[in-house]
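Notebook, p. 212. Picked up where the previous page left off. The plan for this session was modest: take the two constructs that came back from the sequencing core last week, fold each one, and keep the raw output in the notebook itself so nobody has to go hunting through shared drives later. Recording the first one now, exactly as returned: residue sequence, then the structure token string.
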Amino acid sequence: MANKQNLKHFHRQDNTNEPLAAKPTQVRLPERVEQSVNRLPNKAAWLRRVIAEALEREGLLQPDDSY
């Protein structure tokens, strides 16, 4: 288990305040998609937003005011 004193804490790059999961979700992307995502200035914030929007649109997540 990691020593919490040694972990570097990063400030969120968006204005959301919903708690983040302890474990990251990872997915391999097609190369051209990955290249486009990696060019984004706030990649993690963008990915969180579009995943939440897609889940809401498909009825798999209830809308929440924190996004």
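Okay, moving on. Second construct, recorded in the same format:
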Amino acid sequence: MVCPDCGSVETVKDSSDIFCKKCGLELDEAVYNTKGKGSRRDAEKISLPPTLYFMIDTKIELFALKLGLKHNKLSKDWSQNVGFKLSSNWLKKEQKDKALELLDNAFEKKGSELKESRQRIEANWHKISAFYFNEMENALGLEWPTKDYQCYLSLVCNGGFHNSSKNFIVIRSRLDKLANYVIAHELFHIYFRNYINRFFKEKYDEFDDLISEVIVNFVLLTEPRLKELFPSLKFSLDFYAKEEHRKIAQKLWPIWDNKDSFKDFMMKSYAILGREKLWISY
């Protein structure tokens, strides 16, 4: 059980009630002040934030390998990490079973390393997890679509991937200081897809993919409370490696810097980018 106020996972039980050991919050009532200040009496009641489960699975690693090959997002030493290489830049259908067998062997050999990575990354994420999930809802005005997400550790990917339809992300197992940011980044993409599909008549498409890659840094690195989670990262338009993303960021940044709300920002963003999207409310 994670405390939605301070993120602690330690609890104490008094009679029939459960309390956060660190801050004393009564967890079975799960109160949370959306403004982040004020007395508990003025707080709003909400459900507990989502949980991210950290896992290791070679079938997901095969997915990461295929996706990384397709988008050129594999680590430079991926073949050394898994003990095999490919003669081409794609995984052929007839190679799938053999690749999965080799990945099983690699994960078994690196079992201790992967276990240590999972423990370290999971512990660091738990320090910010509840705060992140709650502040994302405050910033964008949408509840997380589900309470359970999975994070798979990978020996091959460079950074991270996300699979929105199945609510899971994949991150590099050797990430250290940037692990929390990469996790938050990939979870944002899942969340943003649900935001578009919830509030706009026109469903999420490839153009929204481009916008998502731009806006994620606006939200995580400039929102007053969220940026506190990543103090080592400072937002700049030079943050974007791809020219396509940088050009969109240059157009949208003035709107973001003067937005009234996230809804206001999204409506103006589509207009300035020449896209027609109809906001719906129900």
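Notes on construct two before I forget. The first helix runs from residue 58 to 71.
Flagging for discussion at group meeting.
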